[in-house]
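Explain this protein:
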Amino acid sequence: MCGRITITQSPDVFRDFYDYSERPNFPARFNVAPTQPVPIVVADRSGRHFQLVRWGFLPEWVKDPKAFPLLVNARGETLATKPAFKAAFKRRRCIFLADGFYEWQRQGGEKTPYLIRRRDRELLPMAGLWETYSDASGGEIDTAAIVTTIANGVLAPIHDRMPVILSREDVARWLDPTNENTDDAMRLVRPCPEDWLEMVPVSRRVNKVENDDATLIEALAAPERALPKPPRTKQRFEDDAQGRLF
């Protein structure tokens, strides 16, 4: 599962890394969540392109989007066979622009957030799939999902899944618009090397989507403990209490 990402480096850094033709200008984001607009890189025979999409994949055959589950992630092992992703895996692969993501360790009723990023602070090319959904009235929306795989040794202590993170060299292979051989793309669906990543505890403020500032990615010396919930007090009622409401 990957349900929050960060996009904190400058637009020029992303453009230089992915070499797309557009020159977008977008603000740093520290807590991007599903259903929000996210930047991706796509490719066609003319080259690579920057594109904004909704994070939450909608297959083209869906009749009622409101009744369809939000597909934030696409399970890598079944991309070639699952009806929702089969066509996009063959023809509409993309990369999510990101430089980090959050994951939570669950212990009882507590969820402790961690930021996962590259040790060298390079970008994190996350493999994705995209689709243009057309509704009955002719309206269109571009949507996308992050491809996931089994967790490597860094993530395994807190979660069993992680995004497919590509090397710079493998970005071209994943995006290749001339190659519809899904076997070639499937070879890239694997955990990235453990030495690429570090996992650091961060503030519980990231749990709220409305919080989106640079303090969220600051590493803490130790995981932040949840504040104890105040004890519930029993409300006392008197026979004539209702009369005092008026």
Q: What stands out?
A: The chain has one domain: 5-245. Residues 235-246 have pLDDT under 50 and may be disordered. Residues 133 and 147 are 19 Å apart (CA to CA).
